Amino acid sequence: MKLQVKFSLYNAITKIAIILVLGAIILFSLDRLAYNQLDNRLLKKKSKIIEHLNDDEIDSLLNNQQSFTDYNILKEEFIVLTDIPDNQKDSIAKIYSEKREIEGDVEVYRILNYKFLYHTNWYNLEIGETMTALQSIKNIIRFYMLIVLVAALLITLITDYAFSNFLLKPFYLIIDKKINRVDDPTHYNYENIPTNTDDFKILDNSINSLMRKINTLFALEKQFIANVSHELLTPISILSTRFENMLNTPEIPVEHENKIYASLKTLNRLKVIINSLLLISKVENNQYLKTEEINLKQELIDIYEDLEDRIADKNINYTLHLEDDFNFTGNKALIHTLLMNIINNAIKYNVEGGNLFIAGKRNQQQYVLIISDTGSGMSKALVEDAFDRFKRGNTDESGFGLGLAIVQSIAKFHKIDVEIKSEEGKGTSISLIF
User: Fold this and answer.
1) 23 and 68 share a domain?
2) Which residue in 270, 263, 286 sits closest to 231, CA to CA?
3) What is the domain extent for residue 358?
4) Cβ atoms of 294 and 335 closer than 8 Å
5) Where is the domain boundary, 89, 116, 136?
6) What digits encode the pLDDT tens for the residues 127-158?
7) Count of helices and strands (H, E) across the chain
8) Could you tell me if 122 and 116 are in contact, meaning their C-beta atoms sit under 8 angstroms apart?
9) Based on the domain organization, do 309 and 405 belong to the same domain?
């Protein structure tokens, strides 16, 4: 999971938790707040009525038994004043909810009940406000509060994701440009990624420092291989010449002659290995030019002519099918070597009377060449190590494990992708993607 996604998930979970807690607190407190607000209104009305009370008002209320305020049509409020015995004492106003029938309609009211003394008489004052409107207001408040909470959550999640994306952009640029796209230390870009975050600056500088060390070691390794390979060719040539001269010596014993032949064979094998390593080193050091126009079909035809005798010796069914004529710019000698190594392996490790099928087709902006055989194949472990030097997928002593290493070096030099599919006992398929 990406760091950005983890940040977003963490922010989302924490914000959802906070909003749920706050929402629950507000929702559970809404009733209490609404009741407190309504009770305060009733207390204020009670104080106002008592303050402005006079004899005429008392007579009017006592005679009517009940009256309504300005909203009498909706019956939202009422005031009831009743005469009570003189044995009452001043009481604290009591507020409660109760159903009342007003002019034939039953409504739930919030009622303030207050007993007071006016002149020499005790009275009971009841002031009521309907709770229907209050409940409607609470429902509306809940609905809009829910909308506001959801909108706030979505806005915060989107802004958090956008901000984390902006914040982590230098990190992904470092990963993409300085790690994922680097296939060769010599092509590494040491320019720092623009960022104001100190942690990313440290990461960028650390990767640059590490790549400088790797590039130095890589260059030393390639130079060492090239130098050693080149220097070894001279003594090998001298030894080969001496052994050949010894073979021309008259009356040489047979046992000595056999040992000299074996030594010459070993020197030739060593010479092939050194030349292969030199070829890989020169390709990796970009010592070849890519300026020739190459026709892929013609190259395959030339290679078939070179290997026709070997194909006939093993009675292999050879099939070449190219849907389109494909041309590209590269190094003709290297491409010839690349194709020769792959086709040579397809012949070498094929079964007697097997099949060798070469097919080419366009795939969108790519051209794919597939070389398949029905040979012994390789295990999954051997396929993973196929491009490693001196790793062989069989016990044939005539191989050195450098053929596919050369293929890989030449393919990288020409920006060709190589894919291998193989199954033991069924054969191998190698795809070249131009």
Assistant:
1) yes
2) 270
3) 292-433
4) yes
5) 136
6) 888 877 677 767 777 777 778 878 887 887 78
7) 9, 11
8) yes
9) yes
